[in-house]
Specification:
mainly alpha, about 5% strand, rod-shaped
């Protein structure tokens, strides 16, 4: 045998070394597969949680919009009296009619004061001004 030829022992040694390399690669690949399988299972679990959440949300009834808070009436007694007039009225009123209902003297100063108070209340959304100078209490 010459120096370039391999002996049976050398071939067997190389085969054994190659077998160990393949076994090591197979072990590393199995470990990667186990890690990927764990990741895949986690993704399946997360997707299932999302499906359950979506299903639960779709089964919930639509929330009803909450009613806006009732506008607050100023504390001054004149506003209380004005609103008392509107609760008994069955039609829109002008400032002059409110003065009469409140037993105020029908004078320009009193009418203007009542009109200003009615405008302030209208700005708060309590009565409504259906046309200029004509006020009514909105009905629920």
């Amino acid at each position: 045998m010459t120096g370039g030829e391999l002996t049976l022992g050398a071939v067997l040694a190389r085969l054994e070394e190659r077998e160990r390399e393949i076994s090591a690669q197979a072990g590393a690949t199995k470990e990667q597969i186990a890690q990927l399988t764990a990741q895949l299972n986690e993704l399946h679990r997360a997707a299932e949680e999302v499906r359950i959440t979506r299903k639960t949300l779709l089964e919930l009834p639509d929330p009803q919009p909450s009613a806006p808070p009732a506008p607050k009436l100023p504390d001054h007694p004149a506003y209380q009296q004005i609103m008392a007039v509107f609760t008994t009225a069955d039609h829109p009123l002008r400032a002059r009619q409110v003065c009469e209902a409140m037993d105020l003297t029908v004078a320009p100063n009193n009418i203007n004061n009542i009109r200003l108070k009615l405008k302030r209340l209208t700005d708060r959304g309590i009565p409504a001004e259906t046309e200029q100078g004509l006020f009514t209490q909105p009905r629920p």
